[in-house]
# Entry
Amino acid sequence: MTKDDDTLPRRGQVKEITSLANPVIKDIKALSQKKHREGTGHFMAEGFKLVLDALDTGWHIDTLIYAKAAKSKPLVEKAAARAFAAGGLILEVSEKVLSSITRRDNPQSVVGIFQARWRPLSDIRPKPGETWVALDRVRDPGNLGTIIRTADAAGASGVILIGETTDPFALETVRATMGSVFAVPLARASSADFLKWQRNAGTAVVATHLKGAVDYREPDYRARPVVLLMGNEQAGLPDDLADAADIRVRIPQQGRADSLNLAVATGIMLFEARRHLLELGGR
Ligand code: SAM
# Structure
């Protein structure tokens, strides 16, 4: 172990850092900005389970950071050994540094910095039984994280982000996914590219719309692979996306609410579209 806040750490060694002014810590903290995440291709995830699951499923870890106070916990040792074997940088830090990285008073003992992954839209060729979620300009990190988690739980094949959206690799979104960010393939596309892709993808695009004429329980979700198209939180779906869909459905409502929360509506759609594929013994 090296204990020196001024020298740059090398891979293949554990480096102890206690100073918030250390340049490595400054770089890690900069991952809270989208610009820096996109520039480096890196993002942060917290917690033993998340980090170990990510390593188990082949995600590339760049850096593992753990709290000095937790260093002898078997799970920390396991995470550090796995990250070490994968060529990651290992940092042992004070609680103060960990709090500052994660912006939490009681941070998790382990944080991993991973390489973000995007699936090119052109590589997505949905197969029978698959369900994809397409989100138009989703803005709220909590909604996006919840949708990724719900898509995972429902057995969906991935989430396509259309237009300017919130970043799935922001810490707040990653937290809300509860680890599902490592399990659900993500793609992004402009609205024009999505429309082009949809013409040749062989899917049934089911748009959800407050003016949809069809009850969401009516379509035959078995006939073709399904893309559930969901609208922006404020504006809903724009006409070009809604009109190009195969069908526009609505979830009937009672009461005074104008609409459902986007993540709730996506959850209802996912479990209806995949109802024939989900059973209690399936897990
Ligand atoms: N003011 C927006 C509008 O007029 O569409 C409300 C958008 S709503 C909060 C966000 C998205 O959730 C909608 O675009 C739609 O995809 C979905 N959604 C919410 N309630 C729905 C419902 N009752 N039926 C179908 N989709 C719904």
Summary: The chain has two domains: 3-115, 121-277.
